[in-house]
Amino acid sequence: MTWNPVPRPVIRTLLRRSAVLYARHGWNVLAGASLAGDKFDCGTTSCPTINCHPVHDDLGAQLRPTADPDLIATWWYRSPYTVLLPTGLGFDVIEVPAYLGALAARILGEHGPRCPISVSPSGRWMLFVAEGEPLRPELDRQLDIVRHGKGSWVPAPPSRYPSGRVRWEVSPGTVGWALPGSYPVQNALVDALQLVAPRQAA
User: Fold this and answer.
1) Phi then psi for 39, rounded to 5 degrees?
2) In 3-state terms, what secondary structure has residue 134?
């Protein structure tokens, strides 16, 4: 059977709808470079970056994050931009490896507040929490755990990478677009670390 890729206009429409949806719920959005084959193209011929990155305007300045649905819609009429969510502007994101994210999500589902969780094509889990709190020392010592705060961003579903799409494991809609405090989620991650530590030491 022949595989037919999704037409570019359809991809652009899906990305635009998602970007506008995030904005309508008060989440700031950034336009990211579009996936073109196995690299990202921001439309600037002199840009040396082939990985995912924010789009710049005609003067070379990065587009400002916005939660204006109308402005966001005009951006995505131009190109199937990657949907980026800037962090530190309403929420932070704690990025963890898949084994830790899945275990923490289970702990949160049983004993704590649920939070939106996205998963990258490479298997990294992104836990969305209220902004401002630093990582607990137990997490900060882990090289594979990253807190995205002010000045950073994460790709949002249904953005595409060469290896696949970003997806929601727990969508914002299923938790009423509510964001839990950072520390209850961090506590679940610490509990998950303690559960896997004996296995890793064995």
Assistant:
1) -145, 170
2) coil
Q: Which residue do the tokens 């890793």 mark? A: 200
Q: Which two tokens stand for residue 167?
A: 């997806």
Paired tokens of 126:
């992104």
* 42 pLDDT above the threshold of 60: yes
* Of the candidate ranges 73-77, 86-90, 133-137, 194-198, the one whose mean pLDDT is the lowest: 194-198
167-170 sheet: strands from edge to edge: 146-148, 92-96, 125-129, 117-119, 167-170
Task: Tell me what pLDDT residue 3 has.
Answer: 38
Look up residue 171 and give its two tokens.
Answer: 């969508």
- The residue among 180 and 197 whose pLDDT is bigger is 180
